[in-house]
Design goal:
- With about 400 residues, the protein is α+β, with helices and mostly antiparallel strands.
- It has three domains: about 90 residues, Butyryl-Coa Dehydrogenase, subunit A, domain 1 (Orthogonal Bundle), CATH 1.10.540.10; about 110 residues, Butyryl-CoA Dehydrogenase, subunit A, domain 2 (Beta Barrel), CATH 2.40.110; about 160 residues, Butyryl-CoA Dehydrogenase, subunit A, domain 3 (Up-down Bundle).
- The strands form three sheets. The protein has a four-stranded mixed β-sheet. A four-stranded antiparallel β-sheet has the order 2-3-7-6, with no helix packed on it. Strands 9-10 form a two-stranded antiparallel sheet.
- Helix 3 runs antiparallel to helix 8, helix 8 runs antiparallel to helix 9 and helix 9 runs antiparallel to helix 11.
- The radius of gyration is 22 Å and the shape is globular.
- It starts with 8 loop residues before the first helix and ends in a 12-residue tail after the last helix.
């Protein structure tokens, strides 16, 4: 039988190792650091985080997404789903294991697109965990979901490029040592062309890169910068992936990164469902436990069904990536569905907890604030729906059936 939903021994072993490290090493360290709800001094916080990173490296739980020859674990995407879903049981897990955004996506990008000199200067420090990076594409003046509209310009001047523009929501910019910046370089292309942009490697800080502010979001000022770029000069050798390939590079980066987000979101949704059920089993009201009330049971049932669908979608999309098949539709579907399920499941968990769920005495408030971001990060819901519809219509035009657009499954 070709379809087998049991875990391969190596996948189960990875999941167990990560789960154990999170429970026995990360969770106690963070509990001690944040005892009594206090905010630790930044120096102490960083000391604990880097100590945890060292322990993760010693355990061989480092760079799960990178090839072994580059110091990683060489995991395929199915195995990576096991890893990421366990790592995200704690907020800092992906960072401890050096597989957090935006560095994770930038590592993939540099490995695929960078030349040897660029890999030596930019990729290797990321892999060692001694530097961090950011990805600068989104702009306030144009729709972030349409990179063909980018207004940041790079103009050739001898052996250099002069860049001017405006970027925002650049995650991690203030702690980054370099940025992958997308700018328009080509004028002799049709309107809306995907060959108009080029990616540049920008060392930070440098003259012309002006970090204006951290944009305040629903979950506070946590590193999403607004950047004004004024007459910033970079040599021709700072182009990443070739002139005019900025759009292709961005899409290459976002494909697997979207699925990695889903893997982490599943962990958060499962945590919320666990909390929902635990609360229902321990809260008595109007003559019975909440778990015995039909209204609560329906919320639990809906959440369980959605989480089941999330897991199947992510595993199937990961399976297709590992097999080298076209995974774009499946990843778009997973990204849309998991992001929305995450919001609904956490919302239900808050409802079952009542006023307590609305307070900061539980992690649900923070989870809900971060979850709302999921519906537009790496492509808004509506963009993914548009692409899914386009591919479904095209599949029918090509074959007379929509089967290929619904996973190509043998049903």
């Amino acid at each position: 039988m070709a379809i087998d939903f049991t875990l391969a021994p190596e996948h189960d072993e990875i999941r167990t190792r990560v789960r154990t490290f999170v429970r026995e090493t990360i969770a106690p360290a963070m509990a001690a650091l944040e005892e009594g709800g206090k905010t630790p001094p930044r120096e102490e916080y960083l000391r604990v985080i880097f100590d945890l990173r060292g322990k993760a490296q010693a355990e061989g739980l480092w760079l799960p997404h990178m090839p072994e020859e580059w110091g990683g674990m060489g995991l395929g995407h199915v195995a990576l789903a096991m890893f990421q879903s366990e790592a995200a049981k704690t907020r800092i897990g992906p960072w401890v294991f050096n597989c957090a955004a935006p560095d994770e996506g930038n590592m993939h990008t540099l490995l695929h697109w960078a030349n040897d000199e660029q890999k030596e200067k930019y990729l290797k420090p990321l892999l060692k965990g001694v530097k961090s990076s950011c990805f600068a594409m989104t702009e306030p003046e144009v729709a972030g979901s349409d990179p063909t509209l980018i207004r940041t310009r790079a103009v050739k001047d001898g052996d250099e490029w002069v860049i001017n523009g405006h970027k925002w929501f650049i995650s991690g910019a203030r702690r980054a040592s370099f940025a992958i910046l997308i700018a328009r370089t080509e004028d002799d292309v049709p309107e809306g062309s995907r060959g108009a942009n080029t990616a540049f490697l920008i060392d930070i800080p440098q003259e012309g890169w002006n970090d204006v502010r951290e944009v305040e979001t629903m979950h506070g000022s946590t590193g999403h910068s607004e950047i004004v770029i004024t007459d910033l000069r970079v040599p021709d050798g700072q182009i990443l992936g070739g002139r005019g390939n900025g759009h292709r590079l961005g899409q290459y980066r976002l494909g697997p990164a979207r699925l990695a987000h889903c893997m982490r979101w599943i962990s958060q949704a499962e945590t919320a469902l666990d909390m929902m059920v635990d609360r229902s089993l321990n809260r008595y009201s109007h003559g019975s436990l909440l778990a015995e009330k039909q209204g609560i049971q329906w919320m639990i049932a809906d959440s369980a069904m959605e989480l089941y669908q999330c897991k199947l979608m992510v595993l199937h999309a990961a399976y297709k990536i590992d097999r080298g098949e076209d995974f774009r539709t499946e990843v778009s579907m997973a990204k849309h569905f998991v992001a929305n399920s995450l919001n609904r499941i956490i919302d239900r968990a808050i409802q079952v907890h009542g006023a307590l769920g609305y307070s900061t005495d539980t992690p649900l408030v923070g989870m809900f604030q971060h979850a709302r971001w999921a519906r537009f990060a790496d492509g808004a819901d509506e963009i993914h729906q548009m692409r899914i519809a386009e591919r479904t219509i095209q599949a029918y035009r090509d074959t007379g059936t929509t089967r290929d657009a619904t996973g190509g499954l043998p049903l």
